Amino acid sequence: MAEREGTTLIDAIEKYAPLLNKAIRTEDEEKKLMPGLTDENLAEAGYAEVIERRKSYSKDGLKYHDEKEGRFGCFYYRYNEVSKTVAPHFFNAEAEEEFVEGKDVSKGPLSKEKLDRRKAELTEMFRDIRTKHPDAKYVRGKSNLYNLEAYRRLYPPTYEVGDVDYDPALWKGNTDIWGQFLGGNNKAPGEYGFKQELADGFLKKAKEVPLERLVDAVPMPPRSAQADIQDFYDFYGIK
Questions:
Q1: Is the domain of 116 the same as that of 207?
Q2: What tens digit of pLDDT does each residue of 111-151 get?
């Protein structure tokens, strides 16, 4: 992207690679670049910093419910008081592993076996929303996960998924686009895992697609979805 747009590598990272951009900057308020970075070493240095910072995370995993973040299992939400809109978000808070002959064969968080668990989390989350934000009117989300029936089935049928979202700001989200390259069963214990074939395909297409339609290069482009919040209350049986 730096080559195609005629910008510096640092500028391209700031625009397109949020995790790396965060890792190569200090954790204070100034967020300055780490000293000694060059175009040749910043990717390696940034990755090493990601691993180092990850070691500082709680070994007990994420709390099921965090009042500050509005987190419920694999879900959390943000509420916009002005538009009266709830934005739901998903991430794999379980990180469950089961290795057989060197491969992780555990069921993913969106598997059919965990459908009831995920819906229970969403029910509790929307009950919390109704209590804390009784004036909420809409639910609107943006994610690459709306391409998956395994994710869409967690929500009411009226939660309509729209066309591909080409908002360039989505590239700065941690997982709006990039999360789809993580996972797979070829991983070491405790690691995220990485889908190399998908990444290779993306890199090839990224050199060819129009810049304003760059998300066409990813396997699952981000999409928007929206519905009235009452549909969610009805779907989860919240009175």
A1: yes
A2: 999 999 999 999 999 999 999 999 999 999 999 999 999 99
